[in-house]
Amino acid sequence: MRRDYSLDDLRYLMRRLRDPKTGCPWDIKQDFLSITSSTIEEAYEVVDAIEKGIPSDIKEELGDLLFQIIFYGQLAEEENHFAFGDIVQCLTEKLIRRHPHVFPDGTLQSVRTESLDNIDIKTQWEKIKAQERKNKGHAGVLDDIPSGLPAMTRAVKIQKRAARYQFDWPDISPVIDKLQEELAELKEALQSADPQAIEDEMGDVLFTAVNLARHCNVEPEAALRRANYKFARRFEYLIRLAEQRNITLRDASLDVMEALWQEAKQSLGSD
After folding, report:
1. 169 CB neighbour count, 10 Å cutoff
2. Contact between 42 and 65 (Cβ < 8 Å)
3. Which of 233, 244, 241, 243 is nearest to 258 (CA)?
4. pTM value?
5. Domain 7-81 CATH superfamily
6. Could you give the dihedral angle defined by the CA atoms of residues 211, 213, 216 and 218, in that order, rounded to the nearest 10 degrees?
7. Domain residue ranges of the chain, discontinuous segments joined by +
8. CATH class of the 151-218 domain in this structure
9. pLDDT (tens digit, 9 = 90+) per residue, 118-168?
10. Cβ–Cβ under 8 Å, residues 109 and 98
């Protein structure tokens, strides 16, 4: 018979893993910094499972991500920083504070009786966020955008924040022109053979490409993941074609490889 475990059981399990005498040697030696890479990895695995659309995988990966939070909570309690309950308290207070259009008098039980349109809600949200930044001592309007985010994700957040101050292109056409301009500057940098200049100009190209995606209402991180997936499927198919025809890719001409690539694209379609 399956036992139904609770969040308290999971927290107890974590304490057992961290027990200095009877716990797991690997878990015992971990600290806040040592598990951050695992946290990032688990978050991406959740996204991957969601994109694949397999409920059982989503459930499992969400559990792995939850375990990271349980782990941090245990470390914090051991070092007397804060209790696990403080995490829940802080989160609940913040969500109530950020949603006055749902909790009008600032309590969990309060209910909105009048309607708000999306513009009102967005304006209200920005005022609340601005006050939170001020309370945390973030003087700059970009200070609260984490520097540890993936560069593409952070670029989107920076650009969206700038757009709220009307620092943005009015439509997509000048963004395309800007991308062409940045590509021309990258070509010049390549001709100069200056590694720093090449890196700088490549960064400008990527930043502008993110801006273009934003103006296309496309999430660039999701678009790139999809492009990665398509390339990987097509390349694996190309490899199988080459093996079936006794073609060694390292020795094949560009024309042969292009023909195999086009065949793979046609066979697999757009997925």
Report:
1. 16
2. yes
3. 241
4. 0.68
5. MazG-like (1.10.287.1080)
6. -130
7. 7-81, 151-218, 222-268
8. mainly alpha
9. 767 777 777 787 777 778 776 678 888 888 888 999 999 999 999 988 999
10. no
Residue whose structure tokens are 């910094």:
33
pLDDT in tens, 181-222: 999 999 999 999 999 999 999 999 999 999 999 999 999 988
